[in-house]
From TrEMBL:
Name listed for the protein in its UniProt record: Disulfide bond formation protein B
Keywords: Membrane, Transmembrane, Transmembrane helix
GO CC terms in record: membrane
Bilayer disposition of the protein: Multi-pass membrane protein
Pfam families in the cross-refs: DsbB
GO molecular-function terms, A-Z: protein-disulfide reductase activity
Domain of life: Bacteria
Zinc found in the keyword field: no
Gene3D superfamilies linked to this entry: DsbB-like
Main location group: membrane
Membrane-crossing residue ranges in chain numbering: 35-50, 57-78, 127-149
Amino acid sequence: MLLMASIVALAIAWWAEHVAGMVPCALCLVERWPWRVIGLTALLVLVLPWRRGGKVLLALIALTLLVSCALAVLHGGVEWGWWSSPLPECQAPRLTGATMAERLASMPVRPAKPCDAPAYLVSWLPVSMSVLGGLYAAALLLAMFTVAVRARGHARTGT
């Protein structure tokens, strides 16, 4: 389930960027890393024997989902104007040089999307992709917690 969840999250981000033509900001790119970690860790959970490290890896996935939620809160706060982004890539470019040619040469190769400009996956839903990603991570974390509590309850009762 967790491996598929990470694949879905990364596939949606890839589709939005490469098919829908949405330009990701620097925070959007950072928000993809937890999903990569979750995917690789979930793959290890499937490969390793459960008793040898499965529980530790599942705990790592839960921690990574918390990081994903925190990044979504950070990015949402930037989008809503509550605070500025901690990443320098989200700031206006600093052009250097005395002549116009030197200033043009110091410009970034690709135009960057500002981190405070939200990207909406669904036009009629006023929730940005960064916030949707955080809600998705929170839902997965809740599902993991629910499965763990039920498994523990079944282990106690012997059913």
